[in-house]
Amino acid sequence: MPAVRNIWREGGVLGFFRGNGLNVLKVAPESAIRFYTYEMLKDFIVHAKGGDKANIGTTGRLFAGGVAGAVAQTAIYPMDLVKTRLQTFACENGKIPNLGAMTRDIWVQEGPRAFYRGLIPSLLGIIPYSGIDLAAYETLKEMSKKYMLHDSEPGPLVQLGCGTLSGALGATCVYPLQVVRTSSNMGAAYKGMSDVFRRTFQHEGIRGFYKGIFPNMLKVVPSASITYMVYEAMKKSLDLEDMLLCCCIRLQLQLT
Protein backbone atom coordinates (compact mmCIF):
# COMPACT_ATOMS: atom_id res chain seq x y z
CA MET A 1 0.00 0.00 0.00
CA PRO A 2 2.82 2.52 0.60
CA ALA A 3 4.03 1.78 -2.94
CA VAL A 4 0.52 2.33 -4.30
CA ARG A 5 0.26 5.67 -2.48
CA ASN A 6 3.66 6.82 -3.74
CA ILE A 7 2.84 5.94 -7.35
CA TRP A 8 -0.52 7.71 -7.07
CA ARG A 9 1.10 10.81 -5.57
CA GLU A 10 3.81 10.96 -8.25
CA GLY A 11 1.78 10.22 -11.37
CA GLY A 12 -1.89 9.66 -10.57
CA VAL A 13 -3.72 6.98 -12.53
CA LEU A 14 -1.22 7.21 -15.40
CA GLY A 15 1.57 6.37 -12.96
CA PHE A 16 0.31 2.79 -12.76
CA PHE A 17 0.67 2.47 -16.55
CA ARG A 18 4.19 3.93 -16.76
CA GLY A 19 6.06 1.98 -19.43
CA ASN A 20 2.96 0.04 -20.48
CA GLY A 21 3.20 1.15 -24.10
CA LEU A 22 6.66 -0.38 -24.30
CA ASN A 23 5.38 -3.40 -22.39
CA VAL A 24 2.71 -3.99 -25.05
CA LEU A 25 5.33 -3.66 -27.80
CA LYS A 26 7.53 -6.10 -25.89
CA VAL A 27 5.02 -8.77 -24.95
CA ALA A 28 3.63 -9.29 -28.45
CA PRO A 29 6.86 -10.56 -30.09
CA GLU A 30 7.93 -12.23 -26.85
CA SER A 31 4.75 -14.33 -26.67
CA ALA A 32 4.83 -15.08 -30.39
CA ILE A 33 8.47 -16.25 -30.28
CA ARG A 34 7.95 -18.26 -27.09
CA PHE A 35 4.85 -20.16 -28.24
CA TYR A 36 6.10 -20.72 -31.78
CA THR A 37 9.49 -21.98 -30.58
CA TYR A 38 7.79 -24.20 -28.01
CA GLU A 39 5.50 -25.81 -30.58
CA MET A 40 8.38 -26.28 -33.02
CA LEU A 41 10.60 -27.92 -30.40
CA LYS A 42 7.75 -30.06 -29.12
CA ASP A 43 6.94 -31.36 -32.60
CA PHE A 44 10.63 -31.98 -33.24
CA ILE A 45 10.92 -34.03 -30.02
CA VAL A 46 7.76 -35.96 -30.89
CA HIS A 47 9.03 -36.88 -34.36
CA ALA A 48 12.45 -37.77 -32.95
CA LYS A 49 10.69 -40.24 -30.65
CA GLY A 50 8.67 -41.87 -33.39
CA GLY A 51 5.81 -39.46 -33.97
CA ASP A 52 3.63 -40.35 -30.98
CA LYS A 53 2.57 -37.23 -29.06
CA ALA A 54 2.13 -39.29 -25.90
CA ASN A 55 5.87 -40.02 -25.90
CA ILE A 56 6.98 -36.44 -25.33
CA GLY A 57 6.46 -36.66 -21.57
CA THR A 58 6.92 -34.02 -18.89
CA THR A 59 10.69 -33.85 -19.42
CA GLY A 60 10.25 -33.07 -23.11
CA ARG A 61 7.75 -30.31 -22.31
CA LEU A 62 10.03 -28.83 -19.65
CA PHE A 63 12.96 -28.78 -22.06
CA ALA A 64 10.96 -27.29 -24.94
CA GLY A 65 9.35 -24.69 -22.68
CA GLY A 66 12.65 -23.67 -21.08
CA VAL A 67 14.46 -23.25 -24.39
CA ALA A 68 11.51 -21.35 -25.88
CA GLY A 69 11.50 -18.97 -22.92
CA ALA A 70 15.25 -18.39 -23.22
CA VAL A 71 15.03 -17.64 -26.96
CA ALA A 72 12.13 -15.20 -26.50
CA GLN A 73 13.71 -13.45 -23.51
CA THR A 74 17.05 -12.94 -25.27
CA ALA A 75 15.34 -11.51 -28.36
CA ILE A 76 13.41 -8.81 -26.49
CA TYR A 77 15.66 -8.22 -23.46
CA PRO A 78 16.78 -4.64 -24.33
CA MET A 79 13.13 -3.57 -24.44
CA ASP A 80 12.53 -5.33 -21.13
CA LEU A 81 15.41 -3.48 -19.49
CA VAL A 82 14.22 -0.07 -20.68
CA LYS A 83 10.68 -0.89 -19.52
CA THR A 84 11.99 -1.81 -16.06
CA ARG A 85 13.94 1.45 -15.86
CA LEU A 86 10.84 3.44 -16.83
CA GLN A 87 8.74 1.72 -14.19
CA THR A 88 11.18 1.87 -11.31
CA PHE A 89 13.13 5.09 -11.67
CA ALA A 90 11.66 7.99 -9.73
CA CYS A 91 10.02 10.60 -11.88
CA GLU A 92 11.52 14.08 -11.67
CA ASN A 93 8.89 16.73 -10.93
CA GLY A 94 6.15 14.16 -11.49
CA LYS A 95 6.98 13.79 -15.20
CA ILE A 96 7.30 10.42 -16.92
CA PRO A 97 10.83 9.93 -18.33
CA ASN A 98 11.11 10.16 -22.09
CA LEU A 99 11.63 6.76 -23.72
CA GLY A 100 14.00 8.01 -26.40
CA ALA A 101 16.04 10.09 -23.97
CA MET A 102 16.36 7.21 -21.50
CA THR A 103 17.46 4.81 -24.25
CA ARG A 104 20.01 7.33 -25.51
CA ASP A 105 21.35 7.96 -21.99
CA ILE A 106 21.83 4.24 -21.40
CA TRP A 107 23.69 3.92 -24.72
CA VAL A 108 25.94 6.96 -24.13
CA GLN A 109 26.58 6.67 -20.40
CA GLU A 110 26.68 2.90 -19.94
CA GLY A 111 27.42 1.55 -23.40
CA PRO A 112 25.62 -1.04 -25.58
CA ARG A 113 26.35 -3.86 -23.16
CA ALA A 114 24.14 -2.14 -20.58
CA PHE A 115 21.05 -3.20 -22.55
CA TYR A 116 21.86 -6.79 -21.60
CA ARG A 117 22.69 -6.12 -17.96
CA GLY A 118 20.98 -8.74 -15.84
CA LEU A 119 20.42 -11.10 -18.79
CA ILE A 120 22.01 -14.07 -17.01
CA PRO A 121 19.77 -13.93 -13.90
CA SER A 122 16.87 -13.23 -16.25
CA LEU A 123 17.60 -16.40 -18.23
CA LEU A 124 18.13 -18.34 -15.01
CA GLY A 125 14.64 -17.26 -14.06
CA ILE A 126 12.83 -17.52 -17.38
CA ILE A 127 14.11 -20.99 -18.30
CA PRO A 128 12.58 -22.78 -15.27
CA TYR A 129 9.54 -20.46 -15.26
CA SER A 130 8.69 -21.00 -18.92
CA GLY A 131 9.41 -24.72 -18.66
CA ILE A 132 7.28 -25.18 -15.53
CA ASP A 133 4.51 -22.93 -16.83
CA LEU A 134 4.11 -24.59 -20.23
CA ALA A 135 4.66 -28.14 -18.98
CA ALA A 136 2.25 -27.72 -16.06
CA TYR A 137 -0.41 -26.18 -18.31
CA GLU A 138 -0.34 -29.01 -20.85
CA THR A 139 -0.16 -31.67 -18.13
CA LEU A 140 -3.15 -30.17 -16.31
CA LYS A 141 -5.04 -29.84 -19.59
CA GLU A 142 -4.42 -33.50 -20.43
CA MET A 143 -5.46 -34.60 -16.92
CA SER A 144 -8.67 -32.60 -17.12
CA LYS A 145 -9.36 -34.02 -20.58
CA LYS A 146 -8.81 -37.58 -19.37
CA TYR A 147 -10.40 -37.58 -15.92
CA MET A 148 -12.96 -34.75 -16.02
CA LEU A 149 -14.07 -34.31 -19.62
CA HIS A 150 -13.82 -37.96 -20.77
CA ASP A 151 -11.58 -37.21 -23.77
CA SER A 152 -13.55 -34.18 -24.94
CA GLU A 153 -11.73 -30.94 -25.67
CA PRO A 154 -11.32 -28.51 -22.71
CA GLY A 155 -13.42 -25.37 -22.91
CA PRO A 156 -12.41 -21.79 -22.04
CA LEU A 157 -13.13 -22.17 -18.31
CA VAL A 158 -10.93 -25.27 -18.03
CA GLN A 159 -8.20 -23.51 -19.99
CA LEU A 160 -8.44 -20.53 -17.62
CA GLY A 161 -8.17 -22.83 -14.61
CA CYS A 162 -5.16 -24.70 -15.99
CA GLY A 163 -3.46 -21.42 -16.90
CA THR A 164 -4.11 -20.02 -13.43
CA LEU A 165 -2.50 -22.99 -11.68
CA SER A 166 0.46 -23.27 -14.06
CA GLY A 167 1.17 -19.52 -13.93
CA ALA A 168 1.01 -19.44 -10.13
CA LEU A 169 3.30 -22.47 -9.83
CA GLY A 170 5.89 -21.13 -12.25
CA ALA A 171 5.91 -17.63 -10.78
CA THR A 172 6.32 -18.87 -7.20
CA CYS A 173 9.21 -21.19 -8.06
CA VAL A 174 11.34 -18.55 -9.77
CA TYR A 175 10.32 -15.32 -8.01
CA PRO A 176 13.64 -14.88 -6.13
CA LEU A 177 15.47 -14.78 -9.46
CA GLN A 178 13.00 -12.20 -10.74
CA VAL A 179 13.84 -10.00 -7.76
CA VAL A 180 17.54 -10.35 -8.56
CA ARG A 181 16.96 -9.54 -12.22
CA THR A 182 14.94 -6.41 -11.45
CA SER A 183 17.56 -5.21 -8.99
CA SER A 184 20.36 -5.90 -11.49
CA ASN A 185 18.64 -3.64 -14.00
CA MET A 186 18.85 -0.68 -11.65
CA GLY A 187 22.01 0.80 -13.15
CA ALA A 188 24.91 1.41 -10.76
CA ALA A 189 23.00 0.52 -7.59
CA TYR A 190 24.52 -2.98 -7.65
CA LYS A 191 27.77 -4.41 -9.00
CA GLY A 192 26.29 -7.63 -10.32
CA MET A 193 24.14 -10.65 -9.59
CA SER A 194 26.25 -11.86 -6.66
CA ASP A 195 26.14 -8.38 -5.12
CA VAL A 196 22.34 -8.36 -5.35
CA PHE A 197 22.13 -11.75 -3.64
CA ARG A 198 24.57 -10.76 -0.89
CA ARG A 199 23.07 -7.37 -0.07
CA THR A 200 19.47 -8.57 -0.25
CA PHE A 201 20.17 -11.47 2.10
CA GLN A 202 22.27 -9.28 4.40
CA HIS A 203 19.66 -6.56 4.82
CA GLU A 204 16.36 -8.43 4.43
CA GLY A 205 17.06 -12.15 4.80
CA ILE A 206 15.16 -14.83 2.90
CA ARG A 207 11.97 -12.74 2.96
CA GLY A 208 13.71 -10.11 0.84
CA PHE A 209 13.74 -12.48 -2.14
CA TYR A 210 9.94 -12.75 -1.98
CA LYS A 211 9.22 -9.07 -1.52
CA GLY A 212 6.37 -8.06 -3.83
CA ILE A 213 5.27 -11.60 -4.65
CA PHE A 214 1.61 -10.85 -3.87
CA PRO A 215 1.19 -8.05 -6.46
CA ASN A 216 3.27 -10.15 -8.85
CA MET A 217 0.80 -13.03 -8.47
CA LEU A 218 -2.08 -10.62 -9.02
CA LYS A 219 -0.49 -9.82 -12.38
CA VAL A 220 0.90 -13.19 -13.45
CA VAL A 221 -2.08 -15.42 -12.65
CA PRO A 222 -4.75 -13.63 -14.74
CA SER A 223 -2.19 -12.84 -17.42
CA ALA A 224 -1.17 -16.48 -17.82
CA SER A 225 -4.74 -17.80 -17.78
CA ILE A 226 -5.99 -15.27 -20.35
CA THR A 227 -2.91 -15.83 -22.52
CA TYR A 228 -3.48 -19.58 -22.68
CA MET A 229 -7.19 -19.22 -23.40
CA VAL A 230 -6.54 -16.81 -26.28
CA TYR A 231 -3.65 -18.93 -27.54
CA GLU A 232 -5.79 -22.07 -27.69
CA ALA A 233 -8.50 -20.19 -29.59
CA MET A 234 -6.00 -18.69 -32.05
CA LYS A 235 -4.23 -22.02 -32.54
CA LYS A 236 -7.49 -23.65 -33.58
CA SER A 237 -8.60 -20.82 -35.85
CA LEU A 238 -5.21 -20.59 -37.58
CA ASP A 239 -4.62 -24.36 -37.83
CA LEU A 240 -1.27 -23.79 -36.14
CA GLU A 241 -0.65 -27.45 -35.38
CA ASP A 242 -0.88 -28.43 -39.07
CA MET A 243 1.38 -25.56 -40.05
CA LEU A 244 3.98 -26.50 -37.43
CA LEU A 245 3.86 -30.13 -38.54
CA CYS A 246 4.70 -29.10 -42.10
CA CYS A 247 7.53 -26.84 -40.87
CA CYS A 248 8.97 -29.65 -38.73
CA ILE A 249 8.86 -32.16 -41.59
CA ARG A 250 10.52 -29.64 -43.89
CA LEU A 251 13.25 -29.02 -41.29
CA GLN A 252 13.89 -32.75 -40.94
CA LEU A 253 14.14 -33.13 -44.72
CA GLN A 254 16.64 -30.26 -44.85
CA LEU A 255 18.73 -31.82 -42.07
CA THR A 256 18.80 -35.22 -43.83
TrEMBL record:
This is Mitochondrial substrate carrier family protein. GO terms for molecular function: metal ion binding. PANTHER family: SOLUTE CARRIER FAMILY 25. It comes from Hevea brasiliensis. GO terms for biological process: transmembrane transport. It is found in: Mitochondrion inner membrane. Belongs to the mitochondrial carrier (TC 2.A.29) family. InterPro entries: MCP, MCP_dom_sf, MCP_transmembrane. PROSITE patterns: SOLCAR. Pfam families: Mito_carr (PF00153). It is a multi-pass membrane protein. GO terms for cellular component: mitochondrial inner membrane. Solcar repeats lie at residues 1-44, 56-143, 154-237. Keywords: Calcium, Membrane, Metal-binding, Mitochondrion, Mitochondrion inner membrane, Repeat, Transmembrane, Transmembrane helix, Transport.
